[in-house]
Amino acid sequence: MGGDRHPVDAVMLARRAASFTRRSIKSDSKQSGLRLAISMLDLTTLEGADSPELVRALCQRAIHPCPVSLDMPVPPVAAVCVYPKLVPVVRESLLGTGVLTASVATSFPSGQSPLDARLAETEAAIAAGADEIDMVISRGAFLSGRFDEVAAEVRAVQDICGQTHLKVILETGELATPDNIRRCADLVIEAASRERDLADGALFVKTSTGKISPAATMPSVLLLLEAVRDHFRGTGVRVGVKPAGGIRKSKAALHMLVMVRETLGQDWLTPKLFRIGASSLLDDLVRQLLWTSRGHYAAMHDVAVT
Amino acid sequence: MMGQSGDTAVAVPSEGWNYSPAPERTRPEIDSEYGLFIGGEFQAPQSDRTFNTINPATGQRLSRISEASEEDVDAAMAAARVAGPKWARMKGRERGKYLFRLARRVQECARELAVLETMDGGKPIKESRDVDLPLVAQHFFYHAGWADKLQWAFGGRDVKPRGVCGQIIPWNFPLLMAAWKLAPALACGNTVVLKPAETTSLTALHLAKLMQEIDLPPGVVNIVTGAGDTGRMVASHPAVKKVAFTGSTEVGRRIMEELAPREVPLTLELGGKSANIVFADAAIEQAIEGVVSGIWFNQGHVCCAGSRLLVEESILEPFVAALRDRMAQLRVGDPLDKNTDIGAINSSEQLDRIRALVTAGQEEGAILHDVQSTPLPEQGFWFPPCFFTGVQPAHVVAREEIFGPVLAVMSFRTPEEAIRRANTTPYGLAAGIWTDKGSKIFEIASRMDAGVVWCNTYNQFDAASPFGGVKESGFGREGGLQGLRAYVR
Q1: B436 reaches A (C-beta below 8 A)
Q2: Which CATH number applies to B275-462?
Q3: N or C: which end of chain B has fewer CB within 10 A?
């Protein structure tokens, strides 16, 4: 692992992260922020009980997030994210819609399988039609200091992905300290770009699987944004960021957008470079949008039809 | 791959995602004219003279304030003297009740007071709401708790109040400075004649209204408004038994001269030119935040502002580049907008002073960095956040207190050089140290000639933590146990 170390002070990090939540996002900026957040969603379902029927319903919501038509149309979400087995269902449901098919792989969520098996799973997901792969790293390897092993597995998955976009899940909740999170983000970005020309948005760093708490906290996301910004300053390459897990309310999503805007700038405010991984967040985003046009909150059965 | 969201709907306008105006809509009631608060009542000044108080963000008049003459100050002193014995005799727990009541009333009126502070002084509502007002309430709560425990504060000694205290406060944190001064004085059983700064009298006068509401005995607190002359009358009045002043070193020196022949204890909290020292091994991202908070908090109108930045030479270039990027994110404008980071300069005099010092800095050859892209409002007093590089320690921008959003950046190679440069100033209010190495923190902190040293943070205040300076930044402490000492005998 190369590059400079970037020590992090947890107290001031938390203070900075909290400062973004003090921004007041109202009227037009709220309207467009909600739409922007919807367009950046990786609508996700990662349950053992996921059925093709449920996933098809989810895909319909991905294409038409808002059940009623508003003056200003509501964009579709960025992608639908599922386990590899359900990729064909998603692929078929989303055909021709522009919404992408994303698949977790590499023994999500723990990554505790032999590398061969994890690579084979990735291959299968791509063969089934995944446009994007969300991989997990071996947190055990990172925490025990075997950084080269983490770098090697990222590069191995990347080799299989080819043109398929790759999101690397750090599982920040298990990395535990801000120093670790920052170091891990640097490690992944450096490994993925060593001797390779990364296209903008071909690589994402992602906070969490959603199976571990804490997940996408403001400070942990800020650390990823800063790692990405420093990489951009050094290379001019734009790596994407995806917070996932625990973002359930519109307000939290808007805080994320504020943080992206003030850390990475407007360039990153696109689904090509910023995603939010969530399942229930869409309900609240749509309810908030309806509220701004109707003046009252919609009932849950009005917005959620999965 | 492309157009995943673009075909059916555009999520963001082409100019990007920007924040809509988010004005604070609460409007406090502002009287057209304010009298002097003497003996529990608002009274017209005997001089019949008044002056305007304006909103520095618009230049518009908010109200008229009375100018206290010699007779008025005499009357205020007399009221404080009359109220003194009973207030001093009162059991500590009873005095504490008044302070608790005042603290709660401040919390209840926090929104109105924050807006008033912002309108009268120009500071962003975000700061008056999230910093000033919570600290004001905290100071009253904290000192309310001391009122019945004074005998334990001073090692079993049965302490007595000093009597009438003359207190003169500045315009940068008007209500907070009033709280810093009033709370310990009242907790210890003193009575007070307070003189707010002439550009920012409104919140102190509204605090007086809250004192009426909680039935604070008449004369315990008296507020005389006016400019420097009124301040001089308060500080030099024969009835005062203790003087506390926060403001410029120049005025502090004059007060000290005035009081030299008399046995009146004095505490002074004066100017500063505090150093923020960033070592190469620091958490850089957080150090940037500390530098930002150090110099651009409250438009740089902060006596402990980290107005000199000392950066280890090996990281100077990337640090300055990152600081520049960060500075570009600061939103300058309407102080009542909740998203404003930097508000208006407090007065046209202060704006002139900042401009003159910045011009002097440029003439001496320092390089000005100023990335403010949005135009500043046409009305009112504004100065964009900026910093100088290529600054020599002898330059005026490295020596003189600017009291504005202007930072002087210098570098150092060794810790010894950092310590020497940081201490080479007549002032000694605060210092900031940024390093990831614990041993270095202790070593450097112990060698700073400064009353307050912040390590890996900056501008942290707490009622329980003493604040004050050394050298020409003054003497005496405010807050904490140490802050009580000045108010007892």
Answers
A1: yes
A2: 3.40.309.10
A3: N
